[in-house]
């Protein structure tokens, strides 16, 4: 079940960015770049490349913070920490959670873009 901490706050983002067309551009770029980063993260996990796992999770975490996506931030922080511990089982478990949260978030973003 998706908790409230994951909900993307479009009114807050509209207040921050003022210009809806700029916000839509930011959201579209977030999805595009994040999809590439997620593939990079999955590849690093398949190779057990802990440095790359940590670095990619850290990069993705910054993007999620930019959009106030706290649940995604929390999952990525766990992946970073587990990469430092070289705990591949926990990394894989959190990758599944991340995939689910990203799909939900992308769906919400796309709904917002269509409505705007």
Automatic annotation (TrEMBL):
Residues modified to Phosphohistidine: 58
Taxonomic superkingdom: Bacteria
Keywords, comma-separated and alphabetical: Coiled coil, Phosphoprotein
Single GO MF annotation: protein kinase activity
Keyword Lipid metabolism: no
Coiled coil spans: 81-108
Residues covered by the HPt domain: 19-112
Entry's transmembrane regions: none
SUPFAM superfamilies, A to Z: Histidine-containing phosphotransfer domain, HPT domain
Pfam families linked: Hpt
Signal peptide: none
BP term (GO), one: phosphorelay signal transduction system
The protein's name in its UniProt record: Hpt domain-containing protein
């Amino acid at each position: 079940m998706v908790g409230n901490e994951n909900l993307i706050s479009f009114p807050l983002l509209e207040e921050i960015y003022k210009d809806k067309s700029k916000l839509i551009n930011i959201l579209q770029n977030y999805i595009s770049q994040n999809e590439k980063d997620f593939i990079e993260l999955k590849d690093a996990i398949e190779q057990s490349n802990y440095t790359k796992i940590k670095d990619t999770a850290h990069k993705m975490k910054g993007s999620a913070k930019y959009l106030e996506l706290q649940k995604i931030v929390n999952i990525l922080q766990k992946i970073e920490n587990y990469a430092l511990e070289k705990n591949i089982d926990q990394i894989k478990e959190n990758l599944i959670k991340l995939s689910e949260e990203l799909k939900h978030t992308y769906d919400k973003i796309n709904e917002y873009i269509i409505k705007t």
